[in-house]
Design a protein that fits this description.
The complex is a heterodimer of chains A (255) and B (320). Chain A contains nine helices and eleven strands. Chain A has 255 residues and is of the alpha/beta class. Chain A is globular, with a radius of gyration of 18 Å. Chain B has one domain: ABC transporter involved in vitamin B12 uptake, BtuC (Orthogonal Bundle), CATH 1.10.3470. Chain B contains twelve helices and no strands. The radius of gyration of chain B is 19 Å and the shape is globular. The mean pLDDT of chain B is 88. The chains are: A alpha/beta (255), B mainly alpha (320).
């Protein structure tokens, strides 16, 4: 079976500046890949390039075998769901209305859901614990609830690849773990590519880590192999390590 | 029944009542079903075309406003505020002043499309509703200057007063031909905008995510620009510049039909029609020596309403 996502030495320059240099990756079904690195490392650009939303300067992204920049928007949306770093709800539509927009590529609209769309929307709302909020307008719920609503929108898309830009930013620890559990559930049949600043979360939930700095991948592999003290120091410029406490891997940075 | 459908049915009933009232009400009291020649002329040749023109112009402007608001994700967007109306008037004025009046509607539509294209390109990444409105202010002023220039250079100065008067906006004395013209433009605009409805819905998520859920934004943008231009161009060619209907109609409808940009389109058209039909009855009934221009009345009511909406948005930090 073809990989969900393959990046072969992908580079992106924006405004003459190299933002991503020679990033390679194979993401199979069943896998979660985490992008780590300081602000400005190129994580967002790499996700966008992988989905064909930002043109690459060189290299070849392959989304289930095809160059995503050559796919129609609809075809691309059926293969990959994307959650931007700062998802927006311009108009204060209801939570369920927002989630239903995830069915766009399937030909549905919030006011015209076919049974299978309704099933997908209900499942996404339930998975993100939004059932009691589904009729509430987006401008009247909390930041964490908004983040979950946008994640539910991406889940409702039912694309094999979930590409999420900092899905746990601004969430409390319990909510962040709930999101991680949702990603793991999705990875039972699909794949997940997500960026985060939560090194501990990435170490525990990702099958593969890409640690980036200034556009370059400085470490790549299984969490314990990639996240060495040397790599963490090179990426973030501070001393840190991954320790095992019981079943859990914990990132510790020395103050 | 959805809120959008309920709102639409109520607005249709209201519109029919307004159009009916327009046949009865006026400076001369008549029974519209009296069967004498004078009554027939007043009711069916004067009042009916005028009322229909007012309604269709209002519907076209309301629809254009709702579509532009969805496209630009901005509750202050409207054909008048964004300069489409000003450019449409410029196109029509050029046609009238230089002696090819029959092309006035086409010129109005073409110029409105040019303005829509410019404002969309400049305003696509505008941060917050106010900055987009400022781009529109610039375009509108520019159009005003160009209209003055066109009038200045016009070979037939005798018609100038008429033209200036016309740009103030009115549906007085419009015929069934005007009804057909603006009706055809509304139909064309409505068809184009109908195909953009789903894209507008997707834009609720912002540009980035809309593209990622599968919306073809180039197509949505093109359809809305052309559709809004057809509506605005047709309305302006027939009735001159009438502002604020495009802001007021969607704003009123949101309270009833919700915020989904696709479900706002048709109720906004109906609300725009009803609003302008009522406003035209009001200007006809006002006991002024010379009749108050419909465009002037719209500005007198709509200007303060616009300022209030803008102030409320500003107070909430640009959050609609």
């Amino acid at each position: 079976m073809r990989a969900l996502l393959e990046l072969g030495a992908v580079s992106v320059s924006l405004g003459g500046r190299s933002v991503v240099a020679d990033a390679s990756l194979a993401l199979e079904r069943g896998q979660i890949v985490a992008l780590l690195g300081p602000n400005g490392a190129g994580k967002t650009t790499l996700i966008r390039a992988a989905l064909g939303l930002t043109p690459v300067t060189s290299g070849a992204p392959r989304l289930i075998g095809d160059d995503p920049s050559r796919l129609s928007p609809r075809e691309r949306a059926l293969r990959a769901a994307y959650l931007p770093q700062r998802p927006q709800a311009i108009w204060p539509v209801s939570v369920e209305n927002l989630v239903a927009l995830g069915r766009f590529a399937h030909g549905a609209a919030p006011d015209r859901l076919f049974p299978r769309d309704q099933v997908a929307v209900d499942a996404a709302i339930e998975a993100c614990a939004l059932t009691s909020l589904r009729k509430r307008p987006m401008n009247e719920i909390s930041g964490g609830e908004k983040a979950r609503a946008h994640l539910a929108r991406a889940l409702a898309q039912q694309a094999p690849l979930l590409a999420l830009d900092e899905p746990t930013a601004g969430l409390d620890p319990a909510q962040a773990l709930a999101v991680a559990a949702i990603l793991r559930k999705h990875a039972e049949h699909g794949g997940v590519l997500f960026s985060t600043h939560d090194v501990t979360l990435a170490a525990n939930y990702a099958d593969q880590i890409l640690l980036m700095r200034e556009g370059k991948v400085i470490a790549q592999g299984a969490p314990r192999e990639a996240l060495t003290s040397a790599a963490l120091r090179e990426a973030y410029g501070i001393s840190g390590s991954i320790e095992q406490i019981g079943e859990t891997l914990t990132a510790i940075f020395r103050v | 029944m959805s809120a959008s459908l309920r709102t639409s049915l109520a607005l249709i009933a209201f519109s029919i009542a307004a159009l009916g009232a327009a046949l009865w009400l006026g400076p001369v009291a008549v029974d519209p079903f009296a069967n004498d020649a004078a009554t027939r002329t007043i009711v069916w040749d004067i009042r009916l075309p005028r009322a229909l023109t007012a309604w269709i112009v209002g519907a076209a402007l309301g629809l254009a406003g709702a579509a532009l608001q969805g496209l630009l994700r901005n509750p202050l967007a409207d054909a008048g505020v964004l300069g489409l109306s000003g450019f449409a008037a410029l196109g029509a004025v050029i046609a009238f002043a230089f002696g090819f009046a029959m092309f006035a509607p086409l010129m109005a539509i073409a110029f409105a499309a040019a303005a829509a294209l410019i404002v969309t390109m400049l305003g696509w990444r505008a941060r917050g509703p106010a900055s987009l409105a400022l781009i529109g202010v610039g375009l509108s002023s520019f159009a005003g200057g160009l209209i003055a220039l066109a009038l200045n250079l016009a070979p037939n100065p005798g018609a100038l007063a008429d033209l200036v008067n016309w740009t103030l906006g009115s549906v007085e004395g419009r015929s069934i031909n005007d009804v057909m013209l603006v009706g055809a433009c509304l139909l064309l605009g409505a068809i184009l905008i109908a195909f953009a409805a789903r894209g507008l819905q997707a834009l609720t998520l912002g540009e980035e995510a809309a593209a990622a859920i599968g919306a073809n934004l180039l197509r949505t943008r093109t359809l809305v620009i052309l559709g809004a231009a057809a509506c605005t161009g047709g309305a302006t060619a027939v009735a001159g510049v009438i502002g604020f209907v495009g802001i007021a109609a969607p704003h009123l409808v949101r309270a009833l039909a919700g915020h989904d940009p696709a479900r706002l389109l048709w109720p906004s058209a109906l609300a725009g029609g009803a609003l302008l039909a009522c406003a035209d009855i009001a200007v006809r009934l006002l006991p002024t020596d010379s009749e108050l221009k419909l465009g002037v009345a719209a500005a007198l009511i709509g200007g303060p309403v616009f300022a209030l909406i803008a102030a409320r948005l500003a107070a909430r930090g640009g959050d609609a």
